[in-house]
Amino acid sequence: MTDTSTAYRFTDPMDLPRIDLEGVASGAIGVFVLNEHGQTFDRIAPAFHDIPTKGSRFPELLTPYTGIVPAEFVVCKNNAKLIGYRTLLTAENELIQDRTFTNDAHRKGAIERMSMTDGFNNEDTLLRPVGDGEDFVETPNPRTHQHIAGTTVVLASTEPSNYGSFLFRILPKLGIVDQLNLKDFKILVPSYNPNMLALLQLAGLKTEQLVLQDVNIEYHMDRALMVSMQNEEAFLHQPTREFYKKFKSRIPHSQPHRRLYLTRRGMSAGATGRAMTNELEVATALESHGFEIMEPSRLSPREQIKLFASASVVVGQSGSALFNCVFMQPGTRLIDMESEPHWLHAHMCLFGSQGLRYGIFEAESLAPPGSPPHQPFVVDTDRLIARTIEFAY
Questions:
Q1: CA separation for the pair 230, 47 (Å, rounded)
Q2: How far apart are CA 169 and CA 234, in angstroms?
Q3: pLDDT-based confidence at residue 264 (cuts at 50, 70, 90)
Q4: Residue 290: left if φ>0, alpha if ψ -120 to 50, beta else—which one?
């Protein structure tokens, strides 16, 4: 039975005592900070935003936006446990995650989401707030417990089963692991499909050192080194861009020349409701203009890296496949077909920070305004082809 009497205080990692690099290896508790807050980034606007004839449901995409790159750090704790997606409960009664906050509103929003009862916002922690709302206690739960002896590097983050999230939130943490020479410790990391595991292996990790995270397990660690999430708002900061440049250099690929259309035909109807109802028409039209029809989910990670690194033009629907833009060369042209506004900001930050020349082709949602995400949509094929010819040739 879980002990529900202990309250854990929601704690920003940057409020922990600072330790030096020697302390990381020697057993000190606190936080080692690689880079402080302060650097800003500007969201790069799209080269175009094409609007459906019935009008746009999107906000103004050319509005300037400046964000703050969060600090990079490693939290070092002894006798800690990991629950849910990325929540570390410490022997000092702290609740710590892999992020810090650049303003009070972001911190308040994170606490409010943690206080919700649904698994997504609560991040499957099964915690509930008490007192002033910043203390949390565990609830009785059916989790199994697993002890991990010695030192464990924790690469956990939010949305752990999502491939796109894995690419911009989790895998780049290995850049810090390399920089601090932590690669020989056990690595606790989400790996919910074979492609995630294959990417970890391509990064040089050994299968025997990996502990593949399961949110139904509570992990008790003698010593935990939790690596920070670096790419807030999906903006790839410079170390992440360098990480992926080095990563794809391990995989031989041709110079960029391929024109790709990324299809979701094998998954749209069943896996999500966000299906393009006239995709066959769109794919056929693009194929007649020299585009290769590719379904990335059917390719191995090595094949996907080679494919995207060799692209000069990519046309695709919003979704995880487009997060493979981390493997594209700067200057690659990208047309993103978006039918919903929910993730536009993150996608714009991602594409722009990777140095892509990108445009947003707004598709027509077939659901009423205000509907939940992931609804069917239709694309104006003639207008898409005209834009593609103008933009890509």
A1: 26
A2: 8
A3: confident
A4: left
CATH architecture entry for 251-392: 3-Layer(aba) Sandwich (3.40)
Q: Which two tokens stand for residue 176?
A: 């810090």
- What are the distances in angstroms from CA 255 to CA 38, 270, 279, 304, 340? 37, 35, 29, 15, 33
pTM of the model: 0.93
| Residue 267 scores a pLDDT above 60 | no
Residue 176 is predicted with a pLDDT of 97
Q: How far is CA 228 from the centre of its chain?
A: 13
The pLDDT assigned to 3 comes to 55
Q: Which two tokens stand for residue 364?
A: 């027509």
Domain boundaries, the chain: 7-36+71-231, 251-392
Residue that is written with structure tokens 């690929």 in the block: 253
The span from the CA of 217 to the CA of 352, in Å, is: 37
Mean pLDDT over the full length of the chain = 93
Judge whether residue 150 has pLDDT over 80. yes
Q: How many CB atoms lie within 10 A of CB 93?
A: 12
Residue burial 230-247, b: 16+ Cβ < 10 Å; e: rest:
bbbbbbbbebbbebbeeb
Query: Is the Cα dihedral 304, 307, 311, 317 positive or negative?
Result: negative
Look up residue 10 and give its two tokens: 């929601």
How buried is residue 214: exposed, middle or buried, by Cβ count under 10 Å (0-12/13-18/19+)? middle
- The residue type found at 257 is H
Q: Residues 320, 326, 327, 331: is their CA dihedral positive or negative?
A: positive
